[in-house]
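Feature request, filed as a ticket because there's no other form

It would be nice if the structure record came with a short human-readable summary line next to the tokens. Right now we just get the raw output. Example of a typical job, pasted below so the devs can see what we mean:
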Amino acid sequence: MASDLLYLSNAHVQELQITAREAQEAVLAGFRDNSLGRNVGRPKSAISIGPGSWFISMNAVSEAGGIGTVKMVAVASDQAHRTTSRVNGLVCVSDYKTGVPLAVMDGNSLTLIRTAAMSAIAAVYLAPEAPVTIGFVGCGQQALSHLDAFTDRFPSLRKIHLLSRNRRSAETVAIAASEKRLEPIISEGPSALLSQSEIVVSTVPSSPGLTPFLDARLMPPSSFAAAVDGARSWVSEGLSAFDRLVTDSLEQSKSPVDASGQYVKSVRFQDDLVHLASGSSRPDAPIRALFAYQGFVIADLALAELAIQKARALRVGTILPR
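Raw output as currently delivered:
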């Protein structure tokens, strides 16, 4: 096997133009393979270096895909006037049989794509079948990625409620939503957004002094929340209002987390995406469902495999000697 190494920068990953549907299909297949024992992913390992700051590592292998991956993520505390992303990652890919390194790729765009794909897949099983309204709490890059994923998956969407501590960010997402023919409504507070959204996506970053402000009891009886933030922005005493609580991997997480990152003791997850992807059916009756998660490496494995396939086909990337 050649010893050359494929390097995919953030620009290279964007050049691949991985569509929302491609990402969802790849991630869904990855979780199905996991349920069948065709790949293995280990819970993330994290070292905290201060409030809101971690170094995280995750690893997975796929016999079916012929690769193994290690993802390293560094999360820096939320600082004022930051000019760089507070979350940065790299994904290293090796051959499954020989262990020879195959590729190194920037993890930032891949993380955005895979996270939104996971939320959309969970929504297929848990959200109202033809939702009209969606609400975003947090309007950063994750919101834009989720906008692509959910408008692709749910063409019935017509209105989007937006809540952000930075109005300019909300306006940026509003413009992107208008281009997708959604009517944007910038909210002044969480109550109206929660009560009027059939789907809610929360992407609130961890920060010292964060006080939960989202109350599930305000959501419609038939609704779905994707808590990309692990539910840290949700009021703990309101979580029991969800009829069903699901995460990406029960092996990795047993409960949602609070603002300090500690597991909530009042509720526990009942199911995970590994099981849903294995062939679960939608609920027969309307429910209020939560998908709270912190990212399972199987999704990164799936996106890394897809990225390498597209990079080879499109001749994208830089070949480096080892």
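Something like this underneath would help us a lot:
The two ends are 13 Å apart (CA to CA).
The chain has eight helices and 16 strands.
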